[in-house]
Amino acid sequence: MHQNTKNHIHNVKAHSDFLNGKSINIVLDDCKILLISQREKQRQHNRSIMQRLIDVTLCLAKSGKPFRGHHENMSSVSKGLFLDFIDVLKKYDNVLANHLEKGALNAKYLSNRIQNDLLICINNVMKRTIQSKIKNRTVSNMTDETSDVGHHEQMSVIIRYFDEEKCQPIKHFIGIQRLLSVTSEAIFNSLSIQISNLNIEWKSVIAVCFDGASAMSGKFKGVQAKVKELNPNISYVHCYGHCLNLVLVDCLSIKNRVIFDFFGCVQLIFSFIEGSPSRHAVLERIVQETNIKLKTLKSLSTTRWTCRSEAVSAIEKNYNSLLQCLIEISKTTTQSDVRLKANGIIYQMKSYNFIFALYVMKPLLAQIQIVSAKLQTRDLNLLSAVKIVQALKNTLISLRSDEDEYCRLCDKVLDVCNAYQIPIPNVKHRRVSKAGFTRRESDA
Questions:
Q1: How many CA atoms lie within 13 A of 92 on its CB side?
Q2: In CA terms, which of 11, 204, 209, 292 is 20 to 30 Å from 30?
Q3: What's the pLDDT at 431?
Q4: pLDDT-derived band of residue 442, with 50, 70 and 90 as boundaries?
Q5: What is the pLDDT of residue 429?
Q6: C-alpha separations of 389 from 44, 249, 366, 368 in Å
Q7: Confidence band (pLDDT; 50, 70, 90) for 433?
């Protein structure tokens, strides 16, 4: 009767469980291991989610695209590129889809603050990587400043060093610093902040590269002078691309009236045709009718001479189509000022000076464009830059002294003038001074 009672059965079972069961320490350890494994699983899951978000952030940041839209709620059509990327990825990624659908609402990691945090973290990682690479190395600095579309003055900073393993110079873009003042003191202070953020001392800097502005290159009060006060051994290098541009601006300035008027006409053609969609449509229609591939017209720039080569090449390739376009616009327009501008451009384009300048400048600008592009390559060094510029000088000198090349150029200009019935001016022969000739004879 006792063996069948509930108390006896319960006690026997409890005794058996005690003898066969695990101790409390083992049970606690097992619970702890299970909890740690669950946390590790959740941590790996969170890392996989963050890795996807970091990849999206890197993709948008490298291409310079905006992250956010005007309205970022779920029903918005344009939520911004970041959220649009996430919506596309979750269609093909079950891990991301489960996280967004079943995860906690306060831990989706899609807010604008999380996006900013990701950008800041990526920036910090990149800076630490650069710091480790340039540690205990001598470096050079390249700095330039310009205004952006928001009318803010921005200064870009680049660090350059030599990598012994790759056996080549390496450049790293450090960042952009906004300038509230463009004085040499303000620029130097901002530059010093950027240098100190990388744990670089001025004694480790062996060279600086600026443009020719007085605030940057001034020997007494410029940034160059302030840098040399901290390290007299620093060498100042004037940007070779900027030097080439300054030379071209000076040699083709207002003193050369033919080239000066030619570039003014090229810019006027671009502004007139591209300034109106209807006039551009006329040009496209004429190009299609003549079965000629349209080469896009380019605007001129005082700081980038490579665009001038493209602008001149576009005028030369589309010359016939442009004339037909301007003639049609002049005949069909109902606006007097448009007709007057079209006739003025036609008059300039059908002049000997324009044709001569067009075929003179095309080969020259093509050579300059090649050199300008090489001066902007990443792996260029100072010796190579000097050789490239010297080769350009030699090429221009040879073109200038080659009479056969000049004769071929003149023949081509005359052929174009005859084809378009452009009047050719008479050549004025110089008169030889009889008085000087008599004196030379008497001296002989």
A1: 4
A2: 11
A3: 67
A4: very low
A5: 64
A6: 56, 16, 14, 9
A7: low
What's the mean per-residue pLDDT of the chain? 85
Confidence band of 238 (pLDDT split at 50, 70, 90): confident
Specify whether the CB–CB gap between 101 and 110 falls below 8 A: no
Higher pLDDT: 134 or 434? It is 134
Strand partners, 319: none
Show the tokens assigned to 97: 């889809």
Render pLDDT for 11-59 as a digit per residue (tens, 0 to 9): 888 888 777 776 777 767 778 888 888 888 888 888 999 999 999 999 9
- The answer to whether 326 touches 315, Cβ cutoff 8 Å, is no
pLDDT of residue 432: 60
Report d(CA 279, CA 34) in Å as an integer.
75
CB atoms within 10 A of CB 272: 20
Q: Which of 342, 320, 322, 344 is nearest to 332 (CA)?
A: 342
Closest CA to 127 of 172, 169, 61, 64: 172
Question: Which of 228, 201, 193, 67 minimizes the C-alpha distance to 139?
Answer: 201
Q: Residue 171's CB: how many other CB atoms inside 10 A? A: 13
Task: Give the 3-state DSSP-derived string for the chain, with helices as H, strands as E and coil as C.
Answer: CCCCCHHHHHHHHHHHHHHHCCCHHHHHHHHHHHHHHHHHHHHHHHHHHHHHHHHHHHHHHHHCCCCCCCCCCCCCCCCCHHHHHHHHHHHHCHHHHHHHHHCCHHHCCCCHHHHHHHHHHHHHHHHHHHHHHHCCCCEEEEEEEEECCCCCEEEEEEEEEEECCCCEEEEEEEEEEEECCCCHHHHHHHHHHHHHHCCCCHHHEEEEEECCCHHHHCCCCCHHHHHHHHCCCCEEEECHHHHHHHHHHHHCCCCCHHHHHHHHHHHHHHHHHHCCHHHHHHHHHHHHHCCCCCCCCCCCCCCCCHHHHHHHHHHHHCHHHHHHHHHHHHHHCCCHHHHHHHHHHHHHHCCHHHHHHHHHHHHHHHHHHHHHHHCCCCCCCHHHHHHHHHHHHHHHHHHHHCHHHHHHHHHHHHHHHHHCCCCCCCCCCCCCCHHHHHHHHHHC
Residues 178-202 pLDDT 10s: 888 888 899 999 999 988 888 888 8
The mean-pLDDT minimum among 263-267, 297-301, 414-418, 424-428 falls in: 424-428
